[in-house]
Amino acid sequence: MKLEVCVDTIAGLNAAVAGGADRIELCSCLAMGGLTPSVGLMELAAKAPIPVYAMIRPRGGNFIFSPQEVDQMKREIAAARNTNLAGVVLGANQHSNALDTNLLKNLIDHADGLGVTLHRVIDLAPDLIEATHIAVDLGFERILSSGSAYKAIDGIEKLAAMHKAAAGRLSVMPGSGVNTQTAPSILQAADFTEIHASCGRTYPQDQHLLDFGFESAGEKHTDEKLVRSLKEVIQGNA
């Protein structure tokens, strides 16, 4: 049983590694669901003793990308490769919310030699089982999903169905709202092999910085103790 932790700072990366994370999803701006990290953060993360996958998402909002944004994503994939990261996290859909198979194939081909994860864009798809089969055919090694719910615990039946449909051809990795309280129920629903969490804790903020817009209200930071506690829980449920 593996624990993937998403981080968007070098301090978060250090906390996740120290807490026992097995893999890192490296982002910027987790408050927006995660955007592509800077090259500098990629370079530092490449020194981590565990695999690091970079989120490839050029902006917030929908997952329908312009030709220039696609070009940007390809350059970001190249940056992840050039900094020796283990993989990338991708996602794109159509106006119908179905996965954009042509663009995803294009991006996966560009990421040749890197591991590839399909992110929670799949939770927007009208048919999760069909989308799971598409992800298999495209060559993804895992899907990060909450089962179309806001929190994985509420989408657990669909997650279990996706896991069954995947039939070992890729990993379905539950994520969103995963913590020490929800993880046991999620892990008992199917024989998942990995789980995704932020392990974030809200800290006191500087009102002066908030007023200037230099901080976001409710911003969370990866907490080493939360990572370690969740790791212990999933090991106990493995």
Structure description:
This protein has helices at 10-19, 39-45, 67-82, 101-110, 128-138, 156-166, 183-188, 207-212, 224-236, and strands spanning 2-7, 23-26, 52-55, 87-90, 115-118, 142-145, 171-174, 194-197, 200-202, 220-222. By secondary structure, it is an alpha/beta fold. The strands form 2 sheets. Strands 7-6-5-4-3-2-1-8 form an 8-stranded parallel beta sheet. α1 (10-19) packs parallel to α9 (224-236) and α5 runs parallel beside α6.
Descriptive keywords:
alpha/beta, eight-stranded parallel β-sheet, 17% strand
Q: Globular, elongated, flat, extended or rod-shaped: what is the shape?
A: globular
- Strand arrangement within the widest β-sheet reads 7-6-5-4-3-2-1-8
In whole angstroms, how far apart are the ends?
Answer: 6 Å
Helix content: 25-40%
Specify the biggest β-sheet.
Answer: 8 strands, parallel
How many H/I helices?
9
H/E series, N to C? EHEHEHEHEHEHEHEEHEH
Q: What does the average pLDDT come to?
A: 95
- The total strand number stands at 10
Question: Compute the gyration radius: what is it?
Answer: 17 Å
Name the poorly predicted regions: none
Derived from helix and strand composition plus strand pairing, the structural class reads alpha/beta
Q: Beta fraction of the residues?
A: 15-25%
